[in-house]
Amino acid sequence: MPVIRLEQPGKRELHLWYLHLGTLGGALRHALVGDKEPVGHALPGVRQLRFTRRFYLRLLLGAYLGVPGKDVEVNRSNRGKPVLDLSVHDSNLQFSMAKSEDRILIGISASHSLGVDLEPEGRVAREPLRLAERYFSPAEYEQLKSVAPERVDAAFLHAWAGNEAVVKASGLGIANQLCRFTLQMDPDLPPAVLAMEDGNAAEWTLKMVRPSAGFVGAVATRQPVNRISCFRLLPAA
Length: 237
Hints:
By secondary structure, the protein is of the alpha+beta class. It is 29% helix and 27% strand. Helix 1 (21-33) crosses helix 2. The longest helix has 20 residues, at 46-65.
């Protein structure tokens, strides 16, 4: 902070931004109300978190577009995916945002739709095999069954994050979509889209990230990617 102007990602490049809203929200309130509020004070409620997420999303988008954050207009597609209002912004800039607790991950592409997800690394699903059988593709379920029992929770978490990212990138919404493609389930192997019911799996890029201790993220896009540049937004001194 402050963020004034950002260069858009190059061809075959993605930008990822990681924000800790507990810290940034305190800095934002400090800027609004002055010395009455400690800079490092955590946000107390859901409404404040929602406001802070929107504020910083528009701040970053505005920096890429060359306009103040308050002038950024965001709509939702027919499937509910947040997108720039093209009647206001003549730009191909694409973005995706995921939240977990008071952290958010924002992905930026200059041309292609993308999806991101963010999960607490210690998250453990109840009956992951049953959930995989119900929601994932049959091939993913078979993969998960073959994972060593002590690795099932990690494999399921990586698969869930990857599935969420791919669904967001497709823009189709999550309902009845997780079973339409197959991801690499083994967390010790490079993440990948192995099969796609309505498309070419080879066109997809899927990457896992660890933006900070205790969190795991995923980013997916339907294009080759040679570089992912990662950033963390910090409060102004």
